[in-house]
Amino acid sequence: MRRFCLFALAVGVWLAVQIDAFSSGASDSACATQLPVHGFAPQSDPTHGGFTIAFTGVPSWHLGQQIPIQLSCANTGYEGIIISVFDPDSNRLGLWNLTATHAGGPMHTVCSGQALTHSDITIKADAALIWIAPSSVANPRTVTVRSTIVVDLATFYFLADVTLPYGGPPPSSSTGGGSSSS
């Protein structure tokens, strides 16, 4: 009886950790590798389960710019995501606008605000995301989006990296209501 109670307690604790860890998105423990802590290996499907991710409507990025990113699914949808933008030295860059839209409700950040993840496990098909480029960086260069898409507890994909070149200093903006003449 004592063994059964210990076993039941261990299973109960394991289930509580599993439910807590996966229902509300990636935890900071996923930051180093962008791997879910589900205990399974990524899928090797070259089509990435029909998922695609792309920067939309911008040929390059500028300091402080808000950059739209579209996640799309041609198949069954996904339960979870973790998405980060990296420089060529694998350092995370920028932050995320949390008004991102997808069918599963709000999203939140992990990894000190530099990775975006889901807030629940409802099935989602698409997401319109907004990455906020850093306002200053010592050596701005091409950035890369790295994404992990979780279909279910045992099925997840690393999507192909998508790059966006640095476009130089931000375009100047007007600072007032008047006009100038030359």
Describe the structure.
- This protein is mainly β.
- It contains one helix and ten strands; from the N terminus they run αββββββββββ.
- The strands form two sheets. Strands 3, 5, 6, 8, 9 and 10 form a six-stranded antiparallel β-sheet that branches. Strands 1-2-7-4 form a four-stranded antiparallel β-sheet, with no helix packed on it.
- The termini are far apart.
- The model is unreliable at 10-22 and 174-182 (pLDDT under 50).
- Percent range for helical residues? 10-25%
Mean pLDDT: 77
Low-confidence stretches: 10-22, 174-182
C-alpha geometry: globular
Count of discrete alpha- or pi-helical segments spanning 4 or more residues: 1
Index terms:
mainly beta; 6-stranded antiparallel sheet; disordered C terminus; 4-stranded antiparallel sheet; single chain; 10 strands; 32% strand; 1 helix; 182 residues
